[in-house]
Amino acid sequence: MTTLRFSYSDRSVQRTMDALKRGAMYCLLLLLAVPFVFPFWWMITSGFKSQGAIFEFPPHLLPQTWHPENFIEVFNYQPFAQHYFNSLYIAILVTTGTLLVASLSGYAFARIMFPGRLVLFVVLLSALMMPSEVTIVPNFFFMKQLSLINTHIPLIIIPIFGAPSVLGAFMMRQFFLSIPREVEEAAMLDGAGRFGIFWRIALPIARPALGGLMILVFLASWNNYLEPLVYLDDLNLFTLPLSLRNFNDVYGTPLWHLQLAATTLAVVPVLILYVIAQRQIIDTFASSGVKG
Amino acid sequence: MAAQQLARGQMARRYNTRRGSGSAGRETVWGYLFIAPQMLGFLVFVIGPLLAVFVFSTQDRNLLTGSVKTVGLNNYLTILTNDALFTKAVTNSLVFTTLLVPVNIALALFLAVLLAQKLAGVMIFRVLFFSPVVTSAVAWAVVWRFMLQGEQGTLNQILSIIGVKGPNWLREPGWAMLSVVGTLVLKNVGLNMVILLAAITNIPGEYREAAMVDGANRIQVFRSITLPLLAPTLLFVTVITVIGSLRVFDHINLMTEGGPANATFVLVYYIYYTAFLGFKTGYASALAAILFGIALVLTALQFALRGRASQP
Questions:
Q1: Considering only the top CATH level, what class is A88-254?
Q2: Which residue of A has its CA nearest to B281?
Q3: Which of A73, A212, A289, B160 has the most CB atoms less than 10 A away?
Q4: Over the stretch A48-79, which tens digit does the pLDDT of each residue have?
Q5: Which percentage of chain B shows pLDDT scores above 70?
C-alpha cells in the first residue's frame, strides 16, 4: 500500500517537474524572442505616431493618438509608389530571368552528356566563393561604357548571372538528378526532342525546386542595397531600399515617423507572404545556406 | 556528398554512351545550347570583371575624369606599407568578424537545440527567430538605428526606467562596433539556426536514446553525441558566417557610415568609399583584389579542415 502511494506521488512529482520545466522553457523562448519581434512591433506602431510623439517618454507600446495619415504622407514626400513599383518589377524580371537561365543549365548539367560538362560545372560553382563586392568596380565601368548608369538595366541583368543564379543552377541540377530517368524515357521514345522533354516534362515536375529558388532570388533582388546605391542617382529610379533611407528633413535628420511608416509598408507584405509560406521558405534557406 | 554526385555523373555517362554516336553529337549540341545563357553571362559579368579587377588594380584610374595610368604594383605597395586607413579597415573587419562569428554560432546552436525539443508550438518560435532573415537589411538597420539613438533612443529609454544610463550606442567609438555586431547577429542568426536545426533533426534518435540508457545525462549526450555529429554543419555555418561578416556593408552604411572616428570603417566599406565617393577605381580594385584573396584563403582553409574532419 505504502509503496504504491509512494510511486504514485513519485509520478506526480515527476509530472509537476515536467510541467515546470516546460513552463521554464516557454518563458526562456518568449524572452529570447523579444529582440527579434519587438523591432517589428516598434516599427509598425511608431509609424502611426506623430512626429512629436515618437520620442515621448516614457515610451508607449501603442500610440496615444493614431496618425494613419503618415502612411499617405509617405507617398507625398517622395515618389514612394514609383519606388515600390521599381523594386517590384525589377525583382520580377530578375526572378524570371534567373529561373529560366538556372533551370536550363541545371537540367543540362544533370541530364545531358557533353564534353567538359564536369569542368564547366565546377568552374561555375567556384563563383559562389567570390564576394560579389569584388567585381562591382569593373561591372560599374562596363555599364558606364554602355551608358547604362542611372538605368535599371544593371540591376536586372547582372544578378541574372551572378551568385544566386549559380546557386540556382546547382539547386536545379540536384533536383533533376533526383527525378527517375524513366519519366523522360517514355517521352523520348515518343520522339520528343531535348527541349520538348525539358519544357513539357522535366520543368513541370521541378515546380517545388523552382518555387524555392523563386523565393531566394526574389528576396535577394527586393532587399538588394549596394548595387542600387552605386548605379542609381535619379530619385524617380530609386528602389525601395534606397527610398527608405531618404525620408530626411533639409538638414539630413531622419523624419522618423515617415521613415518607419515607409519601412512598415515595405516590410509587412513580405512578412505576410513569409508567414503564409513559412515552411517552404525556411526549408529553402536551410538547404541552400545563403543569406537573404 | 560531392563524391556521390560524381558517381551519379559517371553512371549517367555510361548510360548515355550506350546510344548511337549520332544521338551523342546531337546531345552535345543540346547541352551547349542549354548552358549557353548561363555560361555566357557568367563570362561577361563574373569572369571578365574578375580578370578586370586585377588589371585595374595595376592602374591609377579616376572614375570622373576617366584618366587611366599604369602604375604596376604601386597600389598594392601603398596599401600594404603606407595606408593607415587600410590597416584600420582590415583591423576593423577582423575585430568585427571575431566578435560576430562566435556570438552568432553560439546563439544559433543554443536556439536550434531549444527548438529541437519536443514542445507544443515550438515551431512558432522558429518562425519568429527566422523573420529578420527575410526582412531587408535596410529595414532592419533603419529600425535599430532608430532604437539605438542617444538619450531619445528606445533602448536607452527602457534602460532609464530601470535606472541605467545607456551610452549613445552608434556615436561612441567603443560601442558603435558592438551595436552593429548585435544588430547583425539578430538579423542573421535565424539562418544558421535553421541549418543547425535541420542537422540536429537528422541525427537518428536512437543514438541519444542509447547513450541515455547507458546512463549519460543530457549535457553528456549533447557533448559526446550531438556536437561531434554536428561538426561538419558547424564548420559550414562558420565559414559562411565568416565570409558574410567580411562582406558587411549595408548595416555599416546605414547605421554608422563607418564612424564614429572610423570605428566601424570595414574593408568593403573602404572599397565602396574609395571607388564611388573618392572615384579612385584603380586603388579600389587593388583593395577588391585583396578581399578576393582573403575569401580564397578562407575557402581553401574550409576545404582543408573538411578534408581533415572526414579522415578517421
A1: mainly alpha
A2: A137
A3: A212
A4: 998 888 888 888 888 888 999 999 999 999 99
A5: 91
CA B85/CA B82 separation, integer angstroms: 9
Task: Decide: A247 and A258 in contact? Cβ < 8 Å.
Answer: yes
B50 has a chain A CB within 8 A of its CB: yes
Query: Where are the domains positioned within chain A?
Result: 88-254
Question: Which pLDDT band holds residue B130 (cuts at 50, 70, 90)?
Answer: very high
Note which residues in 85-144 of chain B have CB less than 8 A from chain A: 111, 114, 117, 119, 122, 125-140, 142-144
Looking at chain B, the whole-number percentage of residues with pLDDT higher than 90 is: 55
Q: What is the mean pLDDT of residues A165-184?
A: 90
Indicate which of B75, B104, B119, B135 best probes the interface with A, i.e. most A CBs within 10 Å of its own CB.
Answer: B135
Banded pLDDT at A7 (limits 50, 70, 90): low
What's chain B's average pLDDT? 87
Domain boundaries, given as residue ranges, for chain B: 79-310
Domain B79-310: homologous superfamily in CATH: MetI-like (1.10.3720.10)
Q: What are the grid coordinates assigned to B205, written together?
A: 534518435
H helices of chain A, in order, are 2-46, 70-77, 80-111, 117-126, 136-145, 153-161, 163-178, 182-189, 194-197, 203-205, 207-222, 226-231, 240-244, 256-276, 278-288
Judge: B139–A244 Cβ closer than 8 Å, yes or no: yes
- The average pLDDT across B142-160 equals 89
pLDDT for the residue B119: 84
